[in-house]
Amino acid sequence: MEVIDTAVEGVKILKPQVFGDKRGWFMESWSKKKMEDAGLFYDFVQDNQSFSSVKGTIRGIHFQYGDDAQAKLVRCVRGAVLDVAVDLRKGSPTYKKWVAVELTPDNFNQLLIPRGCGHGFLTLTDDVEFVYKEDNLYAPKADRNIIWNDPDIGIDWGIDNPILSDKDAVAPKLSDVENDESYINFQYQI
After folding, report:
1. Most exposed residue of 73, 76, 93, 175, measured as fewest CB within 10 angstroms of its CB?
2. What pLDDT shows up at residue 182?
3. In angstroms, rounded to a whole number, what is the distance separating the alpha carbons of residues 145 and 163?
4. Of 62, 119, 138, 188, which is the active-site residue?
5. Helices (H), the chain
6. 84: which strand partners?
7. Is 132 a catalytic residue?
8. Is 146 in contact with 172 (CB distance < 8 Å)?
C-alpha cells in the first residue's frame, strides 16, 4: 500500500496494491496490519455504502462533533466522485484548508480522513456507489454539516448548481458556527 500525504494535515491518499491478469484483478481494500505498518492506527467499527443516481449530486460537507467524531476511509466502487476533506480543527496548521481527490473504481484510490475534518463528495457520473469505513458509530445527536459552497473555505467543486439534500441546502457557514462549542469543537492535537 502506498500512502500519499495531501495538503491537509492527516488526510492521506491510500493506493492499495492491485494484482491483475487476464481474469481481472485482486486487491486488499483494507488491512489493519498494513495501515499500522504505515503508522496509521485506526479501529474501524462501521461500514456504510451510499448510492447517488444523478451526476452533479453533492453529499456534504458532513462531520460528527465531540466524542462522536469519526475518522473515515472512503472509496468509490462504481462511477466517479470528486471527494473533499476540509480541516475543521482549530489550531491546525491547515485549518479551513481543503483537499479534493478524484476517486474511481479504475484508479483504486482511497481517501483517509482523520477526526476533525469535514467530508463531502460530488458525483461526476450517474449511478455512483460510495463506501465508507468509520472509526466511530453514527450518532444522530452529533451529526453536523457546513454549507458546500462556504466562501471562507472556497472549495472548487467545478459546479454552480448541484443537487443537494434538504439538510445540505440549508447547512450553516463555518463562520456562523465555528465558535459554537455545541456545534463544532475540534482542537488540533499534535
Report:
1. 93
2. 80
3. 16
4. 62
5. 32-37, 166-169, 174-177
6. 100, 120
7. yes
8. yes
Coil, strand or helix at 42: coil
pLDDT in tens, 77-108: 999 999 999 999 999 999 999 999 999 999 99
Does residue 99 contact residue 45 with C-beta atoms inside 8 Å?
no
Residue type at 15 in one-letter notation: K
The CA distance from 1 to 30, in Å, is: 9
Other CB atoms within 10 Å distance of the CB of residue 12: 22
Q: Report CA 106 to chain centroid distance, whole Å.
A: 19
119 is catalytic: no
Catalytic residue among 95, 132, 183, 188: 132
Identify whether the C-beta of residue 18 lies closer than 8 Å to the C-beta of residue 26.
Answer: yes
CA gyration radius, the chain: 16
As given in the structure block, the three cell numbers for residue 122 are: 460530488
- CA-closest candidate to residue 33, choices 45, 20, 21, 42: 42
pTM reported for the whole predicted model: 0.94
